[in-house]
């Protein structure tokens, strides 16, 4: 890494910088494995719990036409994204609080790259979570997935964008790591509830059902569910997620501070 | 030390809300010199260097760093300015070697991380996490990060705070070797011995303004400088004493004569008196130092400010 000559093109230099940065961010994330814990460990645990319940309570849930594991897999996927996103404030608010982001901003590397490396690493984690949950759900617990790649991929991508955006809003608005952790805890449980972890929206009474469907994580779980079992997500669901993504993105960018 | 100034600051003003942190600071720093910025806590030292490094936007005034504007040309500036910040930590689990190598990768012509760590005496902790380091080790890592990009200008804020005396001397040696390589250094410090030892020139800042700007020796001399007390073998009149170069004030106390002034005072007094056949005994000489000057100048400044405030 130290052998770069001045002749090396800017693009190549940025590429090498980013690769090095990604490696370091990855190592750091694995040394304090909160994101892998809440983003992969917790969903795997939930998959096993609902998988076992599903095997003991066979048949369809209510009039949904779906088994327990079918219904909960989308929720568990969304919980994985929440689990990864919710560690963003912890890490990035701390890095800002201790002056690390400011320190990096005095070097030729824009601190945005630091943020980008963190997000790329988190995307890898999210992809790993998706593969583990879908694979485990289908192969071990017999979920009857009829995934249509395009709408399913679109739903997942929007869900990830929206939920990571939520984490970045907390990063932007929280003044200190202590406050960020407390706020992240509240958001964590609220958004898992809205995604249907305790009560599936399909079985929830009104007006809770509508609230869940139009909440950030409820909309994500519904879109993923619809594109995995019900032929495809509704436009309303996709639009809901897109609107949240835009709002979260705007707030995060508008209020983001490097120091 | 010749050539165009590396850094010029003209009429810099920076306020935080209603608090004026820097009030009309002007200075110029030559290429290849170690320029010290000293002053009491809260005098505006850090704000001044933060404006020079482009971290803060001045409210008014202009700054030029190697012909560039720190705010407008910030991207270019970052390539050749190394900054050590006063309060800045690394992620707790980042290891020393990783941090220094990572920073090296940000720059077009970095120093070799391993030999840098070796010259800073921290090679043995390359695999330690930042959170496990002692204060002095953290400080050295922070210096390493400022220098690894092989900067033309290094801005070091509170360089040796938290280091033991031996470590301070090692770091001083390192800074002097940087100057020998032609690096321009801006050193913010509140250690007078450090400023005296390292700096080619100093700006003493108090209440956001420069109250003295000169070589450490000249600033030390400004505060009255040296003082010699002796017993002459025979009476010496005032005029004879006044004629001796460097003598400013004369005082008599019992059989002692006390002379204050600048330069090598005891030498010139003893020689001048010997030339007219007066021997001196019981000589006690004290050289004025920067610390005296610092206290005197900042006190004068405070009393003048106090006078301004009173109606």
Low-confidence stretches of chain B: 306-311
Oligomerization category of the chains in this entry: heterodimer
The main β sheet of chain A shows up as:
none
**Cα Rg of chain B:** 23 Å
Determine the number of helices of chain A (DSSP H or I, runs of at least 4 residues).
11
Strand-residue proportion of chain B: 25-35%
Number of strands of chain B: 13
Identify the biggest protein-protein contact and residues per side. A-B, 28 and 33 residues
Q: Roughly how many Å is the radius of gyration of chain A? A: 20 Å
Describe this structure in words.
- The complex is a heterodimer of chains A (259) and B (311).
- Chain A is mostly helical.
- In chain A, 74% of the residues lie in helices and 0% in strands.
- Chain A is built from 11 helices and no strands.
- The model of chain A has no long low-confidence stretch (mean pLDDT 88).
- Chain B is of the alpha/beta class.
- Chain B is 36% helix and 29% strand.
- Chain B is elongated and about 75 Å long.
- Classes of the chains: A mainly alpha (259), B alpha/beta (311).
- Chain A binds chain B through residues 1-2, 4-6, 8, 13, 16-17, 20-21, 24, 27-28, 31-32, 94-95, 98-100, 102-103, 105-109, and chain B through 53-55, 75, 78-79, 81-83, 85, 87-91, 93-94, 98, 101-110, 112-113, 129, 145, 149.
């Amino acid at each position: 890494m130290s052998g770069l000559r001045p002749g090396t093109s800017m693009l190549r230099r940025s590429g090498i910088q980013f690769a090095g940065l990604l490696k370091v961010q990855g190592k750091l994330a694995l040394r304090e494995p909160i994101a892998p814990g809440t983003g992969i460990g917790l969903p795997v645990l939930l998959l096993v719990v609902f998988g076992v319940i599903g095997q003991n309570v066979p048949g369809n849930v209510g009039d949904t036409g779906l088994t327990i594991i079918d219904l909960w897999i989308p929720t568990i996927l969304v919980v994985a994204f929440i689990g990864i996103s919710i560690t963003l404030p912890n890490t990035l608010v701390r890095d800002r609080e201790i002056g690390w982001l400011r320190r990096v901003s005095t070097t030729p590397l824009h601190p945005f790259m630091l943020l980008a490396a963190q997000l790329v690493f988190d995307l890898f984690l999210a992809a790993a979570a998706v593969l583990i949950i879908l694979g485990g759900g289908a192969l071990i617990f017999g979920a009857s997935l009829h995934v249509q790649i395009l709408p399913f991929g679109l739903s997942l991508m929007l869900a990830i964008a929206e939920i990571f955006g939520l984490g970045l809003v907390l990063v932007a608005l929280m003044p200190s790591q202590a406050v960020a952790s407390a706020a992240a805890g509240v958001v964590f449980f609220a958004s898992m509830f809205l995604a249907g972890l305790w009560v599936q929206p399909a079985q929830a009474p009104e007006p809770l059902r509508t609230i869940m469907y139009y909440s950030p994580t409820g909309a994500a779980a519904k879109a993923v569910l619809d594109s995995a079992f019900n032929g495809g997500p509704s436009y309303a669901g996709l639009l809901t997620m897109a609107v949240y993504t835009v709002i979260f993105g705007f707030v995060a960018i508008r209020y983001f501070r490097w120091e | 030390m010749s050539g165009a100034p590396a850094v010029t600051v003209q009429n810099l003003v920076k306020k935080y809300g209603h608090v004026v942190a820097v009030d009309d600071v002007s200075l110029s720093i030559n290429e290849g010199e170690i320029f010290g910025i000293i002053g009491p806590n809260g005098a505006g030292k850090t704000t001044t260097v933060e404006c020079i490094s482009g971290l803060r936007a001045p409210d008014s005034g202009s700054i030029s760093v190697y012909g560039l504007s720190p705010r407008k040309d910030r991207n270019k500036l970052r390539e050749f300015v190394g900054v050590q910040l006063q309060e800045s930590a690394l992620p707790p689990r980042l290891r020393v070697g990783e941090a220094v190598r990572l920073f090296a990768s940000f720059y077009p012509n970095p120093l070799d991380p391993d030999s840098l760590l070796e010259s800073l005496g921290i090679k043995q902790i390359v695999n330690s996490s930042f959170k496990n380091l002692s204060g002095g080790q953290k400080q050295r890592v922070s210096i390493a990060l400022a220098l690894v990009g092989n900067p033309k200008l290094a801005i070091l804020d509170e360089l040796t705070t938290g280091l033991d005396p031996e470590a301070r001397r090692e770091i001083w040696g390192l800074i002097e070797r940087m100057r020998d390589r032609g690096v321009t250094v801006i050193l913010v410090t509140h250690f007078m011995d450090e400023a005296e030892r390292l700096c080619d020139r100093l700006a003493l800042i108090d209440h956001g303004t420069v109250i003295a700007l000169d070589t450490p020796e000249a600033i030390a001399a400004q505060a009255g400088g040296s003082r010699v007390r002796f017993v002459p073998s025979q009476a010496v009149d005032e005029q004879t004493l006044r004629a001796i170069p460097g003598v400013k004030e004369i005082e008599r106390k019992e059989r002692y004569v006390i002379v204050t002034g600048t330069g090598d005072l005891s030498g010139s007094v003893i020689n001048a008196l010997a030339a007219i056949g007066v021997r001196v005994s019981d000589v006690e000489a004290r050289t004025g130092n920067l610390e005296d000057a610092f206290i005197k100048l900042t006190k004068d400044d405070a009393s003048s400010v106090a006078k301004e405030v009173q109606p």
